[in-house]
Specification:
heterodimer; A: alpha+beta; about 45% helix; B: alpha+beta; two-stranded parallel ribbon; 7 helices
Chain lengths: ~100, ~200
């Protein structure tokens, strides 16, 4: 247990870094199985890559006309970019 | 489900970005499961030559089931292990994981990853499983295979983590868990404070 309770794994401000739930029933025929749901910066890594590629396309407004044809204007795009960038930046400060 | 990073449609980065923006507005928490990781897991761990979307879905749903099927919270400090433990609800998990509204992306890490036919011939131990889970968390990889063991806690390359919920299934004794770390610290600090007051320096 101690391997996952180490305080250095988690952000210093986290009030309750690790919660543990258990269930004695076997899962998927395994005698032991463990799953971690983590609010970790690694979830933001693919988002960062995706943003980079999307910005590269958006800088020349590539394919935007296809979205505009369905009523998705530039303002929508800008708002969505800002939303995702905010989220990714918050994870950047966690690292 | 996070799409493959290349090779699907040309506008997939736009679509992913717009979808994620809407999800972040609507959902309390978003569990990010990457097709690429599932594909690699199916290929390397499950020994499937050409994984289909069905294979990827079954892997993802297995991990998700392990995280959200019924389980009980381990008894908190001061509660006896014999008292009826509280059931772990999905809403509890979200409260514990996403205490900060700006951090709402969750990763799903699951062990063991192996073909069903190998399970009967494998011996599991909790320390070994948890050690791998810890390294997956540090290295930011949902893959049990090919882990980067050089990443260490507190090091520059370690992935920061705000909170985590660990679900253990199988041969579990209530005595397996020590009381949760932060609460223990609080009581230690209190005790230390009291000691300092009683012994003049």
């Amino acid at each position: 247990m101690s391997s996952l309770t180490e305080r250095r794994l988690y952000a210093p401000w986290a009030p309750q870094p690790l919660s543990v739930a258990w269930q004695p029933a076997r899962f998927a025929r395994c005698d032991m199985a463990a799953t971690l749901l983590a609010n970790s910066a690694c979830a933001a890594v693919p988002a960062q890559r995706m943003l980079h590629c999307a910005y590269a396309m958006y800088s020349s407004r590539a394919y935007c006309h296809q979205y505009a044809a369905h009523g998705l204007e530039e303002a929508h795009f800008d708002a969505a970019f800002a939303r995702v960038e905010d989220a990714v930046a918050c994870y950047g400060s966690l690292r | 489900m996070w799409p493959y990073e290349s090779g699907e449609v040309i506008v997939q980065n736009y679509n992913t970005m717009l979808t994620l923006a809407s999800l972040l507005d609507a959902a309390d928490a978003v569990v990010v499961v990457q097709n690429e990781m599932l594909h690699a897991a199916a290929h390397k761990q499950m020994n499937i030559d050409r994984p289909t979307f069905e294979d990827l879905n079954s892997l993802a749903s297995r991990s998700l089931a392990s995280a959200i099927l019924p389980a009980s919270w381990r008894p908190a400090m001061g509660e006896s292990a014999a008292s009826r433990p509280a059931g772990a609800l999905l809403s509890d998990a979200v409260c514990r994981l996403c205490s900060q509204p700006s951090l709402r992306l969750l990763s799903l890490l699951s062990v063991p990853q192996m073909p069903a036919r190998s399970v009967d011939f494998t011996t599991f131990t909790w320390p070994a499983l948890l050690k791998r889970l810890r390294q997956m968390l540090l290295a930011g990889s949902a893959l049990e295979d090919g882990l980067d063991w050089s990443v260490s806690a507190g090091g520059g390359r370690a992935q920061g983590c705000a909170a985590a919920v660990l679900t253990l299934r199988g041969k579990v004794r209530p005595g397996l868990f020590p009381p949760s770390a932060p609460r223990m610290r609080l009581s230690q600090r209190r005790r230390r404070g009291r000691a300092a007051r009683t012994c003049p320096a």
